[in-house]
Design a protein that fits this description.
Elements lengths: L1 H17 L5 H15 L5 H21 L8 H10 L1 H25 L6 H25 L2 H18 L19 H26 L3
Helix pairs in contact: 2-3, 2-5, 3-5, 3-6, 3-7, 6-7, 6-8
């Protein structure tokens, strides 16, 4: 009961802080669900990993952006620090439900999704969640953090993961039993651990 009230309090706080911008994730979800519903066999899995999952990070950046408004840091950081665990839980709950609906739509329409793909997507959700938090806390620039995420995602999608010698976390090939894909999934897991440590360490720092 107390946790339910805490969730409601946090969402109400977000609404007062962000206003109509809070609805952007819902709009994105509806758009992607419409796409996979009517085009399940055409890039359905790729749409989930390259559009829905990065959108999670953009939403997290939007959530933490007010910290860096003038005069807000000292007021909001103690609040976010107090509710850090609850924030992570509610974001994960919301987006896991959205992810389950999207993948459930694909499965219902006959798209075969191997177990390794689910593991990869879960890692991507955690990676972009913590990557978004890390960018906003270490750069302290909302525009810079958002631009980095957008640039990385767009370049990966346009070039199908063939541009620049940086980590390529998306999988654009359909050969999900390729040993190289399994290596990529392990590598993404390592990145999740790294960025989760960096983001939580930064927000937990006293001063």
């Amino acid at each position: 009961m107390k946790r339910s009230l805490a969730f409601k309090r946090l969402f109400w706080f977000d609404w007062r802080l962000h206003g109509i911008a809070m609805l952007l994730p819902l709009i994105m979800f509806v758009a992607l669900e419409s796409y996979v519903l009517f085009n399940p066999m055409l890039y359905g899995i790729q749409v989930i990993q390259t559009a829905f999952i990065p959108w999670i990070a953009w939403t997290v950046i939007l959530h933490f952006q007010p910290i860096f408004d003038e005069g807000a840091y000292d007021t909001l950081v103690p609040y976010y620090r107090k509710w850090l665990v609850m924030d992570i839980l509610r974001f994960l709950l919301l987006y896991f439900v959205g992810y389950l609906v999207l993948t459930g739509t694909l499965l219902f329409n006959g798209v075969d999704i191997p177990t390794i793909v689910f593991l990869h997507h879960i890692e991507l959700i955690l990676l972009f969640l913590f990557f978004g938090m890390t960018l906003i806390f270490w750069t302290k620039r909302f525009e810079y953090a958002l631009s980095l995420l957008l640039m990385y995602t767009l370049l990966e999608v346009v070039t199908k993961g063939q541009f620049m010698p940086w980590p390529h976390v998306f999988q654009f090939e359909t050969n999900y039993f390729d040993p190289l894909y399994h290596v990529k999934v392990q590598f993404v897991g390592i990145l999740v651990i790294l960025f989760s440590f960096m983001s939580i360490a930064k927000i937990s720092k006293r001063n």
